[in-house]
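Inputs:
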Amino acid sequence: MTELDHATSSVRRAFIGVFIMSGITSVLMLALPFYMMQVFQRVLPSRSEETLIALSILAFIAFATYGIFEALRMAVLARAAARYEAMLAGPVVYAHFLDGSRDASSGMELMQDVRQVKTFIGSRALAAVAEAPFIPIFVAVLFMVDIALGILITCGMVVMVVVAILQQRAMKRGIEVQNDAQRGANRILQSHIEQSETVRVLGLQKTAIARWGSLNARGLTAFVNLQTVGALFGGFSRFMRFSLQASILGVGAFLALEGDVAAVVVFACMMLGGRALAPLDGLVGSWSALTNAWSAHNRVRDALIGFYVEPEKTALPEPRGNFMVEKLVFGVRGSDEAIIKRISFGIEAGETIGIIGPSGAGKSTLLRLLAGGLMPNAGHVRLDGADMRNWNRIQLGEYMGYVPQAVEFFPGTIGENIARFDPDASDADIVEAAQQAGIHEMILRFPRGYDTRIGTGGMQPSGGQKQLIALARALYRNPRLIFLDEPNSNLDQEGDHILLGAVSRAKARGATIILVTQRPVLLQVVDRVLLMKNGTIENYGPRQEVLPKVVKPASVERRPVRQIQQPKAGEEANEKTDGQVAAGAGGSAS
Ligand SMILES: Nc1ncnc2c1ncn2[C@@H]1O[C@H](COP(=O)(O)OP(=O)(O)OP(=O)(O)O)[C@@H](O)[C@H]1O
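Outputs:
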């Protein structure tokens, strides 16, 4: 059973309970008209105070029971609503983490969808849905009083159902337009707020507001139209409800004049009519909330189809670091051309591999596939023989170090970020990782040292500092597998030396290191070079064979790649080489 199945069956169970309670409250609603009839037809003619007291006690018991069930019903719905969010919010985020093709905003939107459904489940609108099947009770009582009253209310209700259907049709398109516009506007706003500084520097304030505003205006126009249509239908529904109640009174009065029914029965029937029509009226009034919640649930369902938080996978032994890539294909939705095109190669445990190639060749994508950040569309990435999908990701994370291309930190202190928020982290391990990354002294100079807060709302380290802190995080507890995506793109010469030293030490202790780089300086330490071009492998082999064919003469002159000696473990790198790897970019010379 998936998480979605668990959540929906929990809501279903709650709804069945609410449905039963709605049946009880519907029957109890008959107590007031019944009490009124008894008072007028029994107590007043007999002038019996005992009967009045007995009837009143019975009526109060009925009202109290009604009140209890009404409260209970809403409490059950509130709990079901909270359970829906509690059971699905985590899996929605989890599924988002697993699906590398989703962007950040779609994760937040799904969370909003979960909340929208939760709000609906806990609302009166769902209670009205549960009451609707009991309308026939009131209709049947009216039929029992007089067939004319029964026919009248039935016809009125048919008209109201037709109104509800027409309303649904009239509002369907508007609801879609409103939701699409609001989502689009939110995405634009979120992205501009995240990049406020760029907006400020480039003077894009008005453009940003205009782009967001035009979509938001569409949403607002759709909102006004929807509210107007809803109000019109709501007004008509009220009109129908009051007219029907008045008609019941009119027809009842006519029957009373004929002597067919007593006057008090006419009043009781009018009350019953009102009760019968209330749920329908409620449904018409909350139609857009119901439709929105249904669409939101469908989006949540689509995101979670087949998803279940897996029972812990069997923990495999610590990986040695043998990678086997088999016919690997990766593409994104909406694009015909794959980014990674059926490539196969292997990496030996303990090797250091440099992935190079022109911009857009697919280097970062390949690295992310190897690290398990993305899942392939076809083919396999096997680590020590096991498909990456079959590794226990939480266990595997302990053996992984990763510096992504765009480094960001989670809100917390530098120490917490380096330790990946491990609650059992020892200060010694954190400091050791920082020393390995050569930033211990730099961190000590920060306002609160290792306790300085970074990430959203905290201190903003420079680009180079970010890369070195991320390197410390990658080296925390000496992982076996290290993935570095252009880890020196913001580093100066000193940073390059620190990085080379750290990579060399990790290599010396047997780690498998895969790095993407555009600059030859890092290639000094690699064993093999994988040259990518347009999603395929153009060349893969020992550094000494591949590099001479792809490094620009300028950089070769400054530091001939053929002569670059791999530094020994712990040895700091030599001078920085500024040349760019010209792999496949045309004009490369050997
Ligand atoms: N989520 C995505 N949606 C659409 N296209 C994508 C996505 N991710 C990557 N691409 C495309 O895939 C191609 C390879 O991207 P990738 O980042 O792997 O290249 P790269 O070789 O690392 O480039 P660079 O050296 O510039 O970082 C690019 O053309 C990029 O536009």
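Remarks. Confidence is low (pLDDT under 50) at residues 554-590. The longest strand covers residues 323-330.
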